[in-house]
Design a protein that fits this description.
152 residues; alpha+beta; Nuclear Transport Factor 2, Chain: A; 6-stranded mixed beta sheet; 6 strands; 49% strand; globular; DUF4440 domain-containing protein; NTF2-like_dom_sf; signal
Length: 152
């Protein structure tokens, strides 16, 4: 009976530490993601995304119905590089981060604010972001990005 309780406590400890590891890894991936955006580093951003990463963007445009766009990893990276190449004074900040462990990975939710000049106008974007991460073959990567974006 005592051995069974000790075994359960050890098992619970292992599960708890596994959860903390996934959450910690996901937090570090998110920090590297933000750093890549801030430094306009396409190569660094590409290394964070799994080859089969799925990106879903929901554009909220005033009174119009939301527009939902799905992108491949390559399309997402191309869009980000285009923004960096054509926009001036690009700045990005994040806040309100939370991490939720999910299976062999985690989901990091945060608010991302971007500001940049494009075609002689200043644009602002507020995005509610979720990055889903997974551990594959001993390496963690972003496997999914979901963004709800308001732009003005």
């Amino acid at each position: 009976m005592v051995m069974r309780r000790i075994y359960r406590l050890c098992l619970l400890g292992l599960l708890a530490s596994s959860t903390l590891v996934h959450a910690d890894v996901a937090s570090r991936l998110m920090e590297r993601y933000v750093q890549a955006l801030q430094q306009k580093d396409g190569a660094a951003l590409a290394t964070l995304l799994a080859a089969d990463a799925r990106i879903k963007v929901t554009l909220l445009m005033g009174r119009e119905p939301p527009m939902v766009i799905s992108l491949t990893r390559a399309e997402y990276l191309q869009q980000q590089r285009a923004l960096w190449n054509f926009a001036n004074d690009y700045a990005v900040t994040v806040s309100d981060r939370s991490v939720l462990e999910k299976g062999e990975g985690a989901a990091v939710t945060f608010e991302q604010k971007e500001r940049y000049q494009l075609l002689q106008g200043t644009l602002n974007r507020n995005s509610q972001m979720t990055l889903r991460t997974e551990s594959r073959d001993g390496k963690s990567a972003i496997t999914e990005i979901q963004a709800r974006i308001k732009q003005w």
